[in-house]
Amino acid sequence: MSSIVAEKAQFIVEPGKQSVVIKRIFDAPRDKVFKMVGNPKLIPHWWGPREMTTKVDRMDFRRGGSWRFTQRDPQGKEHAFHGVYHDVVTPERYIDTFEYEGMPGHVNLETTTFKEIDGKTEMTTVVVFQSIEDRDAMVATGMERGISDSTERFSELLSKR
Fold first, then answer.
1. What confidence tier does 85 reach under pLDDT thresholds 50, 70, 90?
2. Domain 2-160 listed as CATH 3.40.50.2300
């Protein structure tokens, strides 16, 4: 049961694969975790690195719905991201695309699953890139730090709710 006590996000980048796997255990039931992930009012409180502010331009968390978030860094520069929800199965999983508007044409497919284990939730996201080169370029931008900040902030918010 040692995997249940994981407090930090696992960030798995395997050589020769065009994917990144992110795993994190949250100390809350799956229904609660899933509901918070899909709540556009809560996204600004946890999505992205701590020094950025996030605005939800749109988030229609359902199959066929779309999303777009805008982040502002401390210098005032904006970064926008968008995608489409291809599948949403409450509270088991969602599948969406992710595209950074600063690098158009590089679309990732993300599958996030939620598994309840002894009252806690293991959230696993598999991000598939179009190529190993795309994956490596995204990892080089600080993806792991952004994921770490996001999951830490999410866990903090979860503990307050």
1. very high
2. no
